[in-house]
């Protein structure tokens, strides 16, 4: 009657479920084991909690570190996931005050996470990573085996005492039960042996060993399917030239191996697919670069092979373009007369392009220069100025030591991979 509106039950229930999920993730967080850790045991703890392959979880942390949130998440895991302790120690407590080290790790993680909140691309990667962790808990967090692994204590390891005897620590549960139960002694008068704990019975023998689980066939099956798919793509590429590039053959195999790795992440198998994925990724990248350079219209073959040497004496003898796919172009333009006169007006232009190699041009000492030099990867040097590295470019307009006068010499020089150099004299 006062105009207020009751909250939507559906919205309230969704919020409660979300809080329940976060609370369950916190209450059932795993301990960091000592027996299967590479750094601090965060990846091994997550793998045991959700029944995943530890190697694939470690690869996931590396990928997340490259995209952004991996390092802060790992530091946060070191802070909030309790350590299992030495072998034979009781399970660590999940409650209590935070240590100074945990507070320091959480502070560093928060500082590293600040750029990911302000950068749009890192924010998307962080949201996707956190969403995957929540989805993993919703789909695999309620398995009995995974919950038991989250709280299972580290197995006891025997040690040698000071008197030379071998001591084996009892599990924490047995120690607590032994302290809680008082010691019982057999009665003094028991002719019929009715006190069961007074019987001298032999100790039970060891339990039969659990048979090893069958080896997963994911790796050989994935490699076989990848080989078949790559062969089919190769047949199409050979039968119809130009339809598919050469890089599509290893790329198709890489796609199949990637699907196998995704399936193996949920089956705790397929770790041997990782080296094949790395090799196929390198081969795909190299094949793609080679296709761009050596294809039918690639820059490494466009214009032919070998050197070009030219020394035109007049502007009319200067070709409008010099091109080589692989080789060197050497132009000596010092003999060209750039003085203006009847029939000799306007700029003198030429262009030189090389795929892999070098371009060297020598111009008259007093020439009025307009040079546009560039290199996809290499060096560009024009009359004392230089640029180097990837996509190096240099634009120079220089009237020469005598100032403006005479015809302008315009040069457009390009090297995909190599060097460009222009000198006077």
TrEMBL record:
Keyword vocabulary terms for this entry: Membrane, Transmembrane, Transmembrane helix
Domain of life from the UniProt record: Bacteria
Name of the molecule in the record: Phage shock protein PspC (Stress-responsive transcriptional regulator)
Positions of the Phage shock protein PspC N-terminal domain: 29-83
Keyword Transferase part of the UniProt annotation: no
InterPro entries: Phageshock_PspC_N
Presence of keyword Membrane: yes
